[in-house]
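Two folds, back to back.
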Amino acid sequence: MSVRISVTKTVAIDRPYEEVHAFLADPANWPRWAVVNIQSIEPTDDPDWWRMSTPQGPAKLRLRARAESGVLDHDYVDDTASWRVPARVVPNGDGADFMITFHQPPSLTESAFREQADLVDIELATLKKILETDRAGRADRDGGTG
C-alpha cells in the first residue's frame, strides 16, 4: 500500500456551526456552491445516492452526514473514477470551519490533481459567500437546512 498525495482545503464561515452543517448535509444545495464540479443533482431510487450532472458527465454522490460530529464524508463515482472524500464542519467561535480532503486518484497525474484541487478554492469561496451574505435566511427558505 502506498500513501497518495492529499490536499486539505479549509474555509472559515461566519454562520453558526449547525446551520453550516445542515446546509452542506443536503445534497440538493450542492449545485449552489460546488459550481465547478456539479451542474445539477437529483435523488435516485436509492435514498443514499444522488445522480449528478458534472462537466465530465454523469456521476453519483453518496453523503454520510453526522450532525453531532460534523462529519460530511462523501463518495463520488463517475465512469472513470471513484473518490472517497472526507469532510468536516467544526465550530469556530460563533461560526464554523469547513474542511475537505482530496486524495490523488490513480487516474490523475499529480499536476492534473493539483489543478483540480485548486479549483475547489472557487467553490469554497462561493460557499462562504452564500452562507455569510444570505444571513437573512434565503438559504433556509430554499430548503438549505435539510
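---
second:
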Amino acid sequence: MERTRTPVVSGWFTGTEAGGDFRLLGTRCSACTAVFFPREDVCCRNPRCPGDGRLAEVPLSPRGRVWSYTDGRYRPPAPYVSDPAEPWEPYTLVAVELEAEGMVVLGQAAPGVSVADLAVGMEVEVVDGVLNEDAETVWTTWRFRPVEVRA
C-alpha cells in the first residue's frame, strides 16, 4: 500500500510530488510589496503599509545563504513526534536569508547535514523533507541543504 504524502502545514510549500519543483509559499502585499512567511491571508503585517493592498500567494526563493545555525540536543515538544523509548539523535537547525526576499526562514537541515557542514554565508537550497511517517501517511516539511550536496 502506498502511503499518502501530506504537508505538515497545508499551504506553506508546494512540489512534494516526485520530481516536483519544491518551493516555500509566502504572500505578497500589493500595496507595499512586503512578503510574508509563514503566509498571511488576512491583512498586511507591515506597520508602514499604506493599506488597501491585496495579499497574493508567491513562491519564495529556492536558495539563500546561511544566516545562522545550531544543533538541537533536546527532544522537541508537540507537534513533533518523539518516542521516549527510542534513542535521541540531535538535529541541525538553519536560519536562511532567502535570496530575493531578504527574509530569514528557519528550518531543519537535510538528513546527513550537521553543524560541521555549515558556515555563515554558505549557499543553501530548500528541499522537501519528512517530519514523521506512520503506516498510512508521510508527513512532509521543508529542509535546507548546502547547494553542493546532492542526495
